[in-house]
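Structure ticket #2291
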Amino acid sequence: MSTKRVLILTYYWPPSGGAGVQRWLKFAKYLPQHGWKPVVFVPEGANYPALDPKLESDVSPSIDIWKGPIVEPAKFPTDTARPVTLCRLCRSALTELA
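Resolution: structure written out below.
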């Protein structure tokens, strides 16, 4: 069986704590057993409300983790330029990671 790659875009990733991080952490942990190689994109310097550094021990060294700059969701512009700004941010992040 050939290994397929899957890109996981998530805000919550260790050292973040709480319920939100568990789903993506466990997906990334167990996907390789089913023929998938996860690539995880997480924000650089995110403002996590809760921290749990112990969760970092669950992150396999074989998982590719990409970190990139983001705009904190609470700071998104509220004007009509919002969709354009988000598209530019996504395009910029994907270009840097390619």
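Closing remark: The helical segments are 19-30, 82-97.
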